[in-house]
Queue: 2 jobs
Job 1
Amino acid sequence: MNEARSQKQSPINHQTTIIKMNTNRKSIRFRAWPIMLLATVLSMALPACEQFDLNEDPGKSQLAVLPYQSLSELELAVTGTYNRLHRALWMTTAFVSAWGGDDLTTHRASNKADFREYDQRLVTPGNARTRGTWNGLYQAIRAANTVLVNAAETDLPDRQAQDQLVGEAYFIRGFAFHHLARVHERIPLVLDIVPNFEIGLASRQEVFQQIESDYLKAESMLPVSSTLGATRPNKGTARAFLARLYMDWAGYPLNDNSKYAQAASSAKQVIDNAANHGFALVPDMRTLYTLAGSQNTEGVFTLAHCQPCGLANRKTGKLGLPGDFGGWQESFAEIRFFEDMPDNYRKEITYHTEIPLDANGRVTPDVANAVSFIPWTEFKDQQNPVFQKITGPFEDNIFNGFQNSRSDYLMRYAEVLLTYAEAAGRSGSVTADAWEALNKVRRRAEGLPVDQPAPGVDLSSGDIAELAYTERKWEFAGEYLRWYDLVRMERVEQALGGSARDPRVSIGTAFDANGNPTPMPLTKPSNPILGSLSPDNYFHPIPPDEVAQLPNLGK
């Protein structure tokens, strides 16, 4: 290893270098035991923390290169893997590519340059958020690899518990590879703990095959059900993510249409066993984005957060408010998307169209007794609608902080239903069940019971694939998914090009030097497109400092 490599390690090879430096298993075990006890106490006292141990130190607990001697050792290593996943995903950094979608935008100035690059489709190789995503997810992959390598030679008395933990490691690795592939297309497949400074980029096909393998292995080892909201994955979680993978595989750039049938079959399998997995749509969408309701049956895989434990969510709260009200002005709603969204119950709980103020002109959680309300069209800093999904209901009072304990959905059951409907349509296997899957989501969007037929809302004819694709657009607005749907269907130009993002009917407000308002039509998006909308700009460069250390990544 040369000096440059030793001074600043690639996240791909860093952990294994440390392993070579310290393989004293007794020392590792001695230091890990107090942390395991703390993790046990926290898991009993704080349900939201059961996914992670806030004080777990992967640098200590995951250095072992020998088989695990006890279930506690294996549990600690897997806990460290979850910890790495949380560190990778706790901020908007990991989801920065979603700003390429037509649902999300950011501040036109301020310190949001990394987000604007994605928003304007002009992403530079040195984008710090891209680098942060890469680092965080490869750290999670390395942690999972440590578990998988060590566990391969481990045979513990409780084989069922061992298999579940190993299955979780396979799932986390598959998830991390999948997320990275959605950003970069081609990535290095790091599958071992042995450093490889000659590693190169795998093909898209190879990457997808590896993700499929990891999800399938996870499915074979995980239990049928796990925790509420699947904060730890179960068999249904793995199968649902296989359905998502097959949708990506069927779309751009591989365009393997045969995968639509596999996506439909996988989603249907989850639907048919939803009760056993603990999955169901929550009756009222409003509860999905509350502190109290963020771990529920709709979570197919949920990232648990617990601010007092040091496991905060930093993607919500004031990040979605404009500067007028002390917001971080990071995650705003696109005006045209907001205008086009059907006016129904779902839209009502997706957005805040006005801000409640108290007598001192401050945002108040006491909405019922607010003195005044400021509509988004009268914001002085930047006039864009606010995502209620991001700020939360004002009554929850998370808008005052940039960190909170609200958990995140890495997949909702609604996605499984809509994946089934769309994939059934695209594979030519439309059934009454496919229409029912679509209609369940549509009914709830209108505030109706999900399982009761609703004339005037239910559909039974038409292009179900396109109907489901459009339903996804509205259902997952602001949830960092829209961009990937545009990519797989090669519809970025259609969604972002020309006047597609231009507001049509919104009347904003211009303020003079004295603060006097004048109505002003809003005719352009906050951040204009500057880069290419063609498929050769769908995926983003490998961080250049990574290529400098591992030159084959640039080939």
Job 2
Amino acid sequence: MIHLNKVVGVVTVRLILGFIFFMQGFGKVFSIGVENVYNADFFYGTFKDLLPEFLIYATAYYTSYIELLAGFLLVLGLKTNYALYALASVLIIVTFGHGLAEPIWDLSHVMYRTILLVTLLIVPKEWDKFSMDTIIRKYMNKSKNLTE
């Protein structure tokens, strides 16, 4: 039997990280609009002399939609590993982008997200009892046992 604190700890970390990214992506996609994110000083204004325009454009769209979709998947606990891998790529892109724009910058908003993300990657999946992945896994095992 898995200790309740481990189960509650994992679901708390997953939900917090999921909502952080989901709400950030939601704001970029639906409230601000990805075109406005792209045209903001930080994206195009900062990188126009450093990177090709298509790369800046792709990055604005990629990070916005991955934050939205992968954050939503984390909240549901569905395809959790894939969502975490995608969000890790966003954090790497953001770290590179901030470092390129300003060599000495505040890492705090990246670091705590990275710590939460890595925590979810390394804890045993069995601890995440309240997720769609667990429900699907139980259903698949049950139906597999019935057919044997």
